[in-house]
């Protein structure tokens, strides 16, 4: 007697098996996508760091000069010969070290001055230079009545290199001579510095200074050029305003380095405001003739002539 066998049942997979298989595959896909995304982020970060500069701008164009030399000329007040001497002196220096010049003219900023003394043009001129060269890092303002006497010294090796600047910085020194109670910070380091300047025997002197491109520079120049200060009739215009804002604004003092006068701002022997060791000596980087354009007993062209001749002779002998 045969018994009917029950029909063979086809095994049925648990309802979650297919779902589990797809979940595992999906997790693998998500993991692969996550790894790929992370890798792309790392590559993007590395590339951004490669092209990032300390000025806060990316992709600096090839050949961008690190230093821009800013000189404000008064073409209406200077003779053509005198102007050409200044221009030739600056161009020679810039060419030697791969820098670039920014020659401004007093008349370019007459409207912005609002009848303030034309010596104020230093501020908008530097700001103009920064806008014209947004990828350059340092801006070296040197007044027109000055000559670079030792062009072999690059600004980097002479002032800007970290170890060099550290050795030059005057810490815990009176901001305004001779005995201002406001002093430079003793803890400031070279990497914190955005403004490098000197004092003479009377004031902080803006005839020669170095300013680093960045947000601080914009803030500093805007504050310095505030209309309230320009109309206040300070005895020495922008110079006394600079004395004022450095003493009353710790934000500026915290980014400032005072260095010995002769490093970038040696005065001619006729200039009485030089510090004890601030008068020009052979081998110094620059010589300036402050006051030669305001003292009726002096002549900028006559004072510069022997030094220009000396500088020219050095060029011929190189």
UniProtKB/TrEMBL annotation:
<comment type="similarity">
    <text>Belongs to the glycosyltransferase 34 family.</text>
</comment>
<dbReference type="InterPro" id="IPR008630">
    <property type="entry name" value="Glyco_trans_34"/>
</dbReference>
<dbReference type="GO" id="GO:0000136">
    <property type="term" value="C:mannan polymerase complex"/>
</dbReference>
<dbReference type="InterPro" id="IPR029044">
    <property type="entry name" value="Nucleotide-diphossugar_trans"/>
</dbReference>
<keyword id="KW-0328">Glycosyltransferase</keyword>
<keyword id="KW-0808">Transferase</keyword>
<dbReference type="Pfam" id="PF05637">
    <property type="entry name" value="Glyco_transf_34"/>
</dbReference>
<protein>
    <recommendedName>
        <fullName>Alpha-1,6-mannosyltransferase subunit</fullName>
    </recommendedName>
</protein>
<dbReference type="GO" id="GO:0000009">
    <property type="term" value="F:alpha-1,6-mannosyltransferase activity"/>
</dbReference>
<dbReference type="GO" id="GO:0006487">
    <property type="term" value="P:protein N-linked glycosylation"/>
</dbReference>
């Amino acid at each position: 007697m045969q018994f009917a066998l029950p029909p063979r049942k086809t095994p049925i997979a648990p309802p979650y098996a297919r779902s589990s298989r797809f979940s595992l595959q999906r997790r693998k896909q998500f993991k692969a996508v996550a790894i790929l995304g992370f890798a792309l982020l790392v590559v993007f970060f590395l590339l951004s760091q490669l092209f990032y500069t300390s000025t806060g701008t990316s992709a600096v164009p090839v050949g961008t000069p690190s230093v821009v030399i800013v000189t404000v000329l008064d073409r209406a007040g200077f003779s053509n010969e005198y102007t050409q001497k200044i221009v030739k002196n600056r161009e020679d220096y810039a060419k030697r070290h791969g820098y670039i010049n920014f020659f401004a003219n007093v008349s370019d900023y007459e409207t912005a001055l609002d009848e303030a003394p034309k010596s104020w043009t230093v501020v908008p001129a530097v700001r103009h230079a920064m806008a014209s060269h947004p990828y350059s890092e340092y801006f070296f303002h040197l007044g027109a009545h000055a000559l670079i006497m030792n062009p072999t010294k690059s600004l980097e090796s002479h002032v800007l290199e970290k170890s060099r600047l550290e050795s030059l910085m005057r810490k815990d020194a009176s901001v305004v001579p001779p005995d201002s109670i406001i002093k430079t910070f003793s803890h400031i380091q070279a990497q914190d510095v955005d403004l490098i300047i000197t004092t003479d025997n009377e004031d902080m002197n803006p005839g020669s200074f170095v300013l680093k491109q960045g947000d601080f520079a914009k803030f500093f120049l805007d504050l310095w050029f505030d209309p309230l200060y320009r109309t206040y009739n300070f005895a020495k215009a922008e110079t006394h305003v600079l004395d004022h804002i450095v003493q009353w604004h710790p934000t500026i003092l915290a980014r400032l380095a005072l260095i010995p006068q002769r490093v970038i701002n040696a005065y001619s022997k006729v200039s009485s405001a030089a510090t004890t060791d601030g008068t020009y000596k052979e081998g110094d980087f620059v010589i300036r003739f402050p006051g030669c354009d305001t003292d009726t007993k002096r002549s900028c062209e006559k004072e510069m002539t022997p030094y220009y001749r000396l500088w020219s002779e050095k060029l011929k002998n190189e």
